[in-house]
UniProtKB/TrEMBL annotation:
Protein name in UniProt: VOC family protein
VOC domain boundaries: 9-125
Organism: Egibacter rhizosphaerae
Pfam family, one: Glyoxalase_6
Signal peptide: none
Domain of life: Bacteria
Length: 129
């Protein structure tokens, strides 16, 4: 049974990382979102629609390993694009790394500069060649 009256509203998604500002800059370049708060050890990006990504300093951060059960990805972000090749070129130029394991054809898996996995997903209306 699902309820339309939840007990809470999602405020943000936060990522542990060694350099919050650098990781916020990386995701700002992908999303176009503006820097909302920079307290040094806590940095936030907010979209016009209210979605927020936060980055929290964790000096001993150990990035997840994908794919692995030792240090699983725990969470990841999907970004929709109309051209996977163009999107890939752009995120690699920002400092992302493409993973060796690519399990699908309609999406690609990358690691952000702090090692968190994220995907570029082909928009359902995009024409594939």
């Amino acid at each position: 049974m699902t309820s339309t009256n939840g007990i809470a509203r999602l405020q943000l998604v936060a990522f542990d990382c060694p350099d919050p500002r650098a990781l916020a800059d990386f995701y700002a370049a992908i999303t176009g979102w503006e820097l909302d708060e920079d307290a040094g050890d806590w940095v936030q990006l907010r979209s016009d629609a209210g979605a927020t990504l936060a980055f929290q300093e964790a000096p001993d951060h150990q990035p997840p390993v994908w794919p692995s059960s030792d240090r699983s990805q725990q969470a990841h972000l999907d970004f929709e694009v109309r051209d996977l090749d163009a999107g890939e070129e752009q995120v690699l130029a920002l400092g992302a790394r493409k993973t060796e394991v690519q399990p699908g054809e309609s999406f690609r898996v990358y690691l952000d500069p702090a090692g968190h996995p994220f995907c570029l997903v082909l928009h359902p209306d995009a024409v594939t060649t």
